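Homework help board

Subject: predicted structure for assignment chain

Our instructor gave us this sequence and asked us to write out the predicted structure in token form, then describe one feature. I got the tokens but I'm not sure how to describe them. Can anyone check?
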Amino acid sequence: MGLKSKIILLAVAPLIVATAIISYLGFQSAQELAAQELAIYEYNLVDAKKKALKNHVGIALSAIDPILNNTELSDQEAQEQVKKVLRELRYDYDDEGYFFIYELSGVNVVHPLQPEYVGQNLWNFQDRLGNYLIQGLIKAAQSGGGYHRYIWEKPPILEYDEKLSYAILIERWNWMMGTGLYLGDIYEELEKTKAIMNENIQNSFFTVMTVVVITVVLVILLGLAINLHEHKLADRRLSEMAQRFMRLQVNERRGFSRDLHDGINQLLVSCKFRIELAGNKLRRETSHEVVQEELVKASDLIGQTISEVRQISHSLRPILLDDLGLNSALSALVDQFSERTNIQVNYCFDVRTKMADEIETTIYRLTQEALTNVEKHAFATLVTLTFEEEHQGLVFECKDNGTGMKMGASSGIGIINMRERLALIGGEFRIESQKGQGTRIYAVFPIS
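My token output:
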């Protein structure tokens, strides 16, 4: 995996993980909230049913209350009228809203929809879950009126459904009177509501996932676009640096070729001419003093040639760098500069780490170029040259008390060469100057 892919993955992976965690927690919270809302909704619906049942029983009690309070009727006559009223009394159109009566012994007295139960003792009657429903209703009635839930056949198709009943006690005859409502409609309503909530939660979750996917895609595309732009920019910079490096090489080779042609070549030609001239004079039996004079001149030319070769070799890579090290080579360069220009140089070298050859050569050339610029342009009397090893690398600083540079002078050939040499090894270069206040050259060389 490439560096760019790792960077994109590093940017996208935390986003995906964080979004997944947040989405999961949000999904769980939404489900818990939906469950709480459904429980509250169920409670409210059941509570509404309970209140309705209590109201229905109160209405039925109001309907039979005149009969119960009529002292002119015998118990048998009053009971028959109460049974008749409750058999005919309804509060719902689908025959679900009826009233029933049981004796406290469990004998059914009134059941409008299932008259076959009338007269039967249902004390031990159980629903499908083993619930003694008649006992539960009688117990609720004896407690001053109460509710009881059980399973019962729902008319008209007589399917079993959960039912909630409210029962009270008719104390005159110790009868339990009550009515009930089926809860199937509530559960159907709850299931519909739950389905709607789940659908909304899923839609929200899918919406979040869609947004996340779009965001991730946009991040990836943006990262690719940025990387592509940076890649093109880096390629352009690399191309420009390669061109500058080639230009630098061509200039150095051109100078080397000029030195060979104008210096060494001319000296060798002159030396060859003196030797040939001495040979011709020797063949003509000229005096030895004349021949000796030509050979001495040839020897002087050879000495000049050797000196020129050493100078060219030194310009390619100073031999002192290999023989004595960077500090000694820079000290010799500073001494030669001071002796040649009569400019005082405060030199400080505080570097302990051994550096690569190309770094040492660049440091030497940069120092050489900086001192050359001081000699040619600064008109300075004092130069401070320091080399210090810090955490960011070797820090080079060259300050003079000269006249400074004019605006735009920092783009000269010498400055450009120094800047390009630093760029080639990944260093940092900066120059500061004000007219009449001297010049400061600052550079950082990578040690490793």
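Reply (TA_rk): Your tokens look well-formed. For the description, you could write something like this. The chain is about 60% helix and 15% strand. That's the kind of observation they're looking for.
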